[in-house]
Design brief:
- The structure is a single chain.
- This protein is an all-alpha fold.
- It is elongated and about 55 Å long.
- α1 packs antiparallel against α2 and α2 packs antiparallel against α3.
- The relative contact order is 0.13.
Length: 103
């Protein structure tokens, strides 16, 4: 296996773990952690394809990763703020027990 394939395999395993965490857990914080794992796997793919691409000196993959990290930080901050606001109202972070967001 080439080293690019190893990076992609690692990213796929991280993504699968994040997807399993986001889908199977009912705790809102663990769902948010699963989404963060999936974003980290995407960042690893960006870096691997940039590093092993035809022009690694162009820094395009690095810029994609920096933009993605900024978006992930904003998503985590807003997600945690929403979780705290819902917790203050319903006293639970279990997704199945939260009734106020249902239409």
């Amino acid at each position: 296996m080439t080293s690019l394939a190893l990076y992609l395999l690692l990213a796929a395993m991280i993504f699968a773990a994040g997807l399993a965490l986001a889908v199977t857990r009912r705790n809102a914080i663990l769902v948010l952690a699963g989404v963060e794992l999936m974003l980290n796997a995407a960042n690893l793919n960006f870096l691997a394809f940039w590093r092993f691409g035809p022009h690694p000196e162009a820094l395009t993959g690095f810029l994609f990763v920096m933009f993605s990290i900024a978006i992930a930080a904003a998503e985590a901050a807003i997600g945690l703020a929403l979780i705290l606001a819902v917790f203050r109202q319903s006293r639970t972070i279990n997704i199945d027990q939260i009734e106020q967001l249902k239409g």
